[in-house]
Amino acid sequence: MNFSKLTKFILTRPDLLDEEQNRIALILHTFLVLMVITCVLMIIVCLLNSWYISFYILSGTVLIVLISLFLTYRGRIQLASIITLICLLCAISISVYKGDGIHDVSALTIPVMIILASLLLARKTYLLFIALTIVAIGSVEYFRLRKGYIQFYGDDPLSEFIIWVLIVVITAAMVRLLTENMLQTIRRIKESEIKYRNIFENIQDIYFEIMPDGTLLEIGYSLEKILLYSRNELIYRSVISLYQNPEQHTIFMNQLLLIWLCCNNWFISTKSPRIIQSA
User: Fold this and answer.
1) Are 136 and 89 in contact (CB under 8 A)?
2) To 5 degrees, how large is the angle CA 132–CA 20–CA 82?
3) Mutual orientation of helices 77-98 and 52-73 as an angle, nearest 10°?
4) How far apart (Å, rounded) are the C-alpha atoms in residues 108 and 57?
């Protein structure tokens, strides 16, 4: 695989049949591409400074990211997400262990990782990942304690561990709640769109939306059958070109305005002894 093919493989956006899966795949793909770019830049820095251990670690990370991209294109979204997030969690844990404290890196990266996991993982998998994150934090603190590192919150490692467990749990709960509300809103909008589209596609009467200048904005499928034009041929086209006499459009618009003025002041009798009048 040469460089151009590899670049095309990385930058090609996933196109899955299921819209929900494709939405998740696009989020994961964007994150994976950013990971590849970041790792490549860090690899260059490692080579320039002869940091060969970091070079090998970053090269392995790039390989894992490429595997996740391959799984994403194949529609294995959950598996690709799990591999990516575990790889990211391991990288954060190693960086924190080698650094000056768990607060240095995780203050930013752990909440970001939780947000990403909430967008990508199913509920049960998400809970397992949060538990794995807590285990990783505990492991880092345990090994740091054995090495005799100074703790950020004093000499009590248990206090620091409890604080970070609370941060992870609260962040995970809030992020998941917001994510599920957002997804429910998206689903309701999608259901309304599908319902409207089904009604629109099956309407038998002639239906069209038109601008005063004659530009067609939308047409019903019944009009396609009558005019023998496809929808793409008519949308955003001036309807005046369809008239045998273009002056008829002005007459039509004047008549339409007259009908609107008449219908804008109507009365409706209801079953109760009252009358509804239009505004």
Assistant:
1) yes
2) 20
3) 160
4) 21
Residue 269's SS3 state is: strand
pLDDT digits (tens, 9 = 90+) for 170-224: 888 888 888 888 878 888 888 887 877 777 777 767 777 778 777 888 777 777 7
pLDDT digits (tens, 9 = 90+) for 108-128: 778 888 888 888 888 888 899
Q: Which two tokens stand for residue 153?
A: 């919150």
Q: Taking the alpha carbons of 211, 216, 220, 223 in that order, is the dihedral positive or negative?
A: positive
CA distance 56 to 221: 60
The first and second tokens of residue 97, run together, are 């262990």
Closest residue by Cα to residue 39 from 9, 60, 25: 60
Q: Is 219 exposed, middle or buried (0-12, 13-18, 19+ CB in 10 A)?
A: buried
Cα gap 194→10, rounded to integer Å: 33
Residue 267 banded pLDDT, cuts 50, 70, 90: very low
